[in-house]
Specification:
4-stranded parallel beta sheet; UDP N-Acetylglucosamine Acyltransferase, domain 1; 5-stranded mixed beta sheet; alpha/beta
Length: 316
């Protein structure tokens, strides 16, 4: 089944442009990355063009177009990386809560970094062989990921993100390390450990830490700085612990046994493993409530400390 253009997502760069003059970086990258492919075509034309017998020129032209596209992507990545090194030397990217105003240096440079990355990322994601050039972009721009990961059906931010191995991001899911809320820009490192599954259209907010062997259900949303405990399924808005994740447990097939159809498989699985909150004992419900209150208190205390530090610095 074909995928609509609106669902062809992949690596994400914000369209926020703090100052109009930042567009010059975008235009410069397009111009300088096109120069190598023009030289490539010129060499090809010099060697193969013959006005009387042009058959060789046209025979190998599709192959040249393919090579020129790869050259365009790599040249754009190279020049973008050089610009990012210079920009990051002037103002190093950092985590924190910043004001969304042009006077704030972190907000301006965050916008500038996204402007520089946008052209190579757009090119890489339209390569006809999925995954290869996207991975090159991720690694070049600082995202830690593995070849075994499937990230390209969702929006994945391009900095302050670390992936483990065998991670799957569902179609239309959003993995963020930066988000604008009101007049604030929040930048936090997002960590996703090994064998994590992120459902379709789920949203992972900055600072989220998803531990090993977790599942985030479709259409679920995490909170800023939330920790998803190892080996659980999380669901809801905001995401809450639903049940233990037994999908990757050794011997699962033997425990479920042979079933005739998908509905029978679901019923068998629920009989063995599903444990919902409404079936918990009173002591277990109290323990979950206490853990939730402690987690919320830590999150609110962290936000208050971040704001106090920012407010002190702004007043200075």
């Amino acid at each position: 089944m074909s995928v609509p253009n609106t669902m062809r997502v992949g690596p994400f760069t914000s369209t926020v442009l703090v100052k109009k003059r930042y567009i010059t970086f975008y235009i410069f990258l397009i111009w300088i990355s096109v120069i190598p492919i023009l030289l490539e075509f010129w060499v090809y034309w010099r060697f193969l063009w013959h006005p009387i017998r042009p058959v060789h020129f046209y025979t190998f032209l599709p192959l040249l177009a393919f090579l020129m596209y790869i050259t365009l992507v790599f040249s754009s990545i190279l020049f973008a990386k050089i610009l990012l090194i210079i920009i990051n030397a002037i103002h190093k990217p950092r985590e924190g809560v910043f004001l969304r105003i042009p006077a704030d240096r972190d907000y301006r440079y965050w916008s500038l970094r996204n402007t520089i990355k946008r052209w190579p990322i757009w090119l890489a994601h339209r390569f006809p062989f999925p995954g290869f050039l996207d991975n090159v972009c991720f690694k070049t721009f600082g995202v830690k990921t593995k070849i075994s990961n499937s990230l390209f059906e969702g929006w994945v931010d391009t900095e302050f993100i670390t992936f483990g191995k065998d991670v799957v991001v569902g179609q239309g899911a959003i993995v963020q390390s930066a988000v604008i809320i009101g007049n604030l820009l929040i930048i936090r490192k997002t960590v996703i450990e090994d064998e994590v599954r992120i459902g379709s259209h789920a949203i992972i907010m900055p600072g989220t830490h998803i531990e090993h062997n977790c599942i985030l259900a479709a259409n679920s949303v995490t909170t800023v700085g939330q920790v998803l405990e190892r080996g659980y399924v999380y669901a809801g808005i905001p995401a809450k612990k639903f049940k233990r994740n037994y999908f990757f447990e050794d011997g699962l097939e033997d425990k479920i046994g042979h079933v005739e159809d998908v509905e029978a498989l679901r019923e068998k699985y629920e009989q063995i493993y599903t444990k919902r909150y409404d079936k918990l004992k009173l002591k277990e419900r109290r323990e979950l409530k206490r853990e939730k209150k402690e987690e919320e208190k830590k999150r609110f205390d962290y936000a208050a400390d971040e704001w106090e530090e920012f407010d002190d610095g702004f007043n200075i």
